[in-house]
Design brief:
Keywords: Signal. It comes from Cecembia rubra. This is Outer membrane protein with beta-barrel domain. The chain is mainly beta and about 190 residues long. The protein has a single domain, classed as Beta Barrel (Porin). It contains two helices and 13 strands. A hairpin with a 4-residue loop joins strand 6 and strand 7. The radius of gyration is 21 Å and the shape is elongated. About 25% of the residues are buried.
C-alpha cells in the first residue's frame, strides 16, 4: 500500500496536468499617453506609466481567452498651470488571436477605476513649487481594450494597446479617456 501511494504521489508531481500546459502568464511594463474626448477645457497630455499582469487560457494554438490586471497612470495639464495625475486599475476580459507570423491581436471589455484617484498640483508663482491637493472628481468607467503585439522571441513581446472609454470618467463633466500605451513584456 505504501508503494502504491508513493507511486501515485510521484506520478502526480512529475506529470504535466493538461490545464497547466494551457495556462500562460504575461507581465508587461511601458509608457502611455492620454487622449480625452469632450474634455471641457484645453489640456496637454504627458506620458505616464503602465503595468500589466495577464493570465491566458489557450483554447488552441491560435485562440486564447484571458483576464488582466492593469495599472495605468494618466498625466495631463491644463492652461491654468494645474497638473493632474490619475491612477487607475483596470480589469478587462480578453480574447486573443495569434497568427503564424508571431503577431497577435487581443480585444475585450473592461472596467477601469477600482483605485481611481487623482492628484492635482497647482504651480505657485512665488516659489515655482507644486502643492498637492486631493481631488475626488474621478469615477471608474467601462472601456474596450485593443492590443496589437509581436512575439520577439520565446517569452519576450512588444505590444501597443489602445483603450476606448465608453462611459464618462468624471462625476461632473462628460468626457471619456482613451489612452494609448506601448509596452515591453515577457511570458512567465
Amino acid at each position: 500500500m505504501k508503494k502504491l501511494v508513493f507511486i501515485l504521489f510521484a506520478l502526480s508531481i512529475f506529470s504535466n496536468v493538461y490545464a497547466q500546459k494551457n495556462l500562460n502568464f504575461d507581465l508587461a511594463f511601458g509608457a502611455n499617453y492620454p487622449r480625452f474626448t469632450d474634455l471641457p477645457f484645453d489640456y496637454k497630455g504627458d506620458f505616464g506609466f503602465n503595468g500589466t499582469l495577464r493570465m491566458w487560457y489557450n483554447i488552441s494554438d491560435e485562440f486564447s481567452i484571458g483576464v488582466e490586471t492593469n495599472y495605468m497612470q494618466l498625466n495631463h495639464s491644463n492652461n491654468d498651470g494645474a497638473f493632474l495625475k490619475s491612477h487607475y486599475i483596470g480589469l478587462p476580459l480578453l480574447v486573443k488571436r495569434t497568427f503564424p507570423s508571431n503577431l497577435y491581436v487581443a480585444v475585450g471589455v473592461g472596467y477601469l477605476g477600482l483605485a481611481a484617484s487623482e492628484e492635482v498640483s497647482f504651480r505657485t508663482e512665488v516659489a515655482g513649487s507644486s502643492i498637492p491637493a486631493p481631488f475626488s472628481e474621478l469615477q471608474g468607467f467601462i472601456y474596450l481594450p485593443a492590443t496589437l503585439g509581436y512575439n520577439i522571441s520565446k517569452g519576450l513581446f512588444v505590444e501597443i494597446n489602445s483603450l476606448w472609454g465608453l462611459s464618462n470618467m468624471s462625476k461632473t463633466y462628460e468626457y471619456k479617456a482613451s489612452p494609448i500605451a506601448l509596452s515591453l513584456g515577457f511570458r512567465l
